[in-house]
Amino acid sequence: MTPSMTPSTPPWPRLQRVDWPALEQHLDENGHAVIAGLLDTSECAGLTALYTESDRFRSRVVMARHGFGRGEYQYFAYPLPTLVDTLRRNLYPRLVPIANRWQARLGKERRFPAEHSAYLAQCHDHGQCRPTPLLLRYRPGDYNCLHQDLYGDNWFPLQVAVLLSAPGKQFEGGEFVLTEQRPRRQSRAMVPPLRQGDALVFAVNQRPVAGQRGDYRVTLRHGVSELRRGERYTLGLIFHDAA
Ligand SMILES: O=C(O)CCC(=O)C(=O)O
Ligand SMILES: [Fe+2]
């Protein structure tokens, strides 16, 4: 454990400062919402520095080999770095009420338990045992095709990505892009402005939208536009484990 991996303040008080009702409303209306400044610069640098510590990771994916884009990412192995584990365990209970409300509106039966440990036990019972938190690295010319991070039948409907690099300073281009596909309509693209340390909460698969005849589903995908300069790192926090 490097010293920079110790959170400078415990994440719990940090998350208490978040305006959750506003975040929830933005999520309901757009399928994504930003938690500004969740990590500080030194925490971002500490996580970025882990990228070269190969024994922290269970696998490395070179995106071009799979047609996923260009660039690469690595999935952390268990045990997760303390800060990654703390973020995942503390963000989850805040997102559960939103996730369960969406499940009901989407007509889905599954409800998620209040604690992340209980949810992981469920994933493990389903044979989804492999950790999904990841670090992504982009260099000039790299990009990430629009995709969804499902990894099995049991998936938690919200995920979080934290931008670890400083736009305009450490990199240019490389915008986080979301698309929202509405039934029988054209897709809407969204590019939330992100600064270093900002966390984006977004829908993994679908979100409910109130229509004239009840709720309907819209499908979301996310990706990253081409990086023009520098190096860009992201921490991805997915709450379900993978098959
Ligand atoms: O690099 C990014 O911002 C996208 C990360 C991503 O695809 C994810 O966290 O699931
Ligand atoms: Fe992703």
Explain what this protein looks like in three dimensions.
The protein has 243 residues and is an alpha+beta fold. The chain has a single domain, classed as q2cbj1_9rhob like domain (Jelly Rolls), CATH 2.60.120. It has six helices and 15 strands. The protein has a seven-stranded antiparallel β-sheet. β12 and β13 form a beta hairpin. It starts with 10 loop residues before the first helix and ends in a 6-residue tail after the last strand. The model has no long low-confidence stretch (mean pLDDT 94). 2-oxoglutaric acid (AKG) binds next to β13 and β15.
Output the keywords:
15 strands, binds 2-oxoglutaric acid, alpha+beta, binds fe (ii) ion, 7-stranded antiparallel β-sheet, Jelly Rolls, about 240 residues
CATH class bucket: Mainly Beta
Main sheet specs = 7 strands, antiparallel
Series of H and E elements: HHEHEHEEHHEEEEEEEEEEE
Assess the beta-strand content as a share of residues. Answer: 25-35%
Instruction: Compute the number of helices.
Output: 6
Choose one word for the global shape. globular
Q: At CATH's second level, what is the architecture?
A: Sandwich
The CATH homologous superfamily is called q2cbj1_9rhob like domain
**Average pLDDT, all residues:** 94
Rg over alpha carbons = 17 Å
CATH fold node name: Jelly Rolls
Bound ligands, named by name, code or SMILES: 2-oxoglutaric acid, fe (ii) ion
Low-confidence stretches: none
- Distance linking N and C termini: 28 Å
Instruction: Compute the number of strand runs.
Output: 15
